[in-house]
Amino acid sequence: MRHTLNYYYQIAYWWMPNAIWYPMVYSFCFALTVCLLSMAFAPKYITFYKNWSTDRQKLFHTTVVAFVMPCIITAFIFPEFIYWLKYFNNSSWLDNPNIWEQPTTMILARVLGISLGYLVFDTCAMLVWFRELKTAMRPALFFQMMFHHIASICVWSYCVKYDRATFYVFYCIFTEVTNIFLNFRSILAFLDLEDVSLHTLVGTLLLVVFTIVRILPIPWIISLAVNAYYGNFNTLQIILGCVFGPAPILLNIFWYFLLVRKAVRMLKADPNMGFKKVMSHGDTKIATTELSLINHDEHRNRFVE
């Protein structure tokens, strides 16, 4: 038995270093605690909680976790942001052929562990509440998020372990800041606060921050990738880069298209409303700055790059 466990431990360590494992376990436990607290306090303090369907209740709890964890990740990743600013200032912002071979910092390893802990928790929640969350999110979005979580856990941890594309891993984790506004907005919708000014403000900030963090850097990142040197990459690393490298950029462009399309529809419906909700009941609910494939009262938007 001990030999078998040691064998699996060696496989796990080959893929993911201890610097990631420990923060990941702590992060998973913290996310689970937040979820349990939400399940304990929501029925007491949200008067209409019991009127929600089971699907909506489960979705609310995972949304609360999805709001709290990006806040923590953003706070912990700030020193890594400063590190990369200094790196590019001391080297070059454009001509940087070795950008994908920079060593992993301890800060990045720990922040990645926190991020992966949340992804593992959310994956487990999707498996435990499989029927409820698949119904609430709808199958297309549900399986998209399942694939996103598993791919991120595997690819990001491998990159950090072998010092490959560490800056790109940092950037993908850094974009979690946009999920703070996205999920806070969803929580306000759960609480029937879509017509308050705070909801309008958060929706506006979501569009602005998403543009700055996820869209504007795309040409620069593509330029870094095109001009990088790949002579030291093995076959597996080349395959991982070709298959998974473009995915975050393509998804960000697609999600941004949905975000802007919703904003344009809302403005056309009532230009004086700004980012406020135009209609608020049932299937007539339209024209919100929603970042989602599906826009229904009982569906949470759960996008992580």
Question: What does this molecule look like?
Answer:
The protein is mainly alpha-helical. The protein has one domain. Helices cover 72% and strands 0% of the residues. It contains twelve helices and no strands. α4 packs across α7.
Task: Please supply descriptive tags for the structure shown above.
12 helices, 305 residues, disordered C terminus, mainly alpha, single chain
Secondary-structure blueprint:
Layout: H1 2-15, H2 18-45, H3 54-90, H4 106-128, H5 130-137, H6 139-161, H7 166-174, H8 177-190, H9 197-215, H10 218-227, H11 235-244, H12 246-269
**How many separate helices?**
12
Main sheet properties = none
- The gyration radius over C-alpha positions equals 20 Å
Uncertain runs: 5-12, 274-305
Total tally of structural domains: 1
Strand content: under 5%
The H/E string reads HHHHHHHHHHHH
Average pLDDT reading = 85
Count of DSSP strands: 0
Q: Please tell me what the overall shape is.
A: globular
* SS-derived structural category: mainly alpha
Fraction in helix: over 70%
Separation, N- and C-terminal Cα atoms: 38 Å
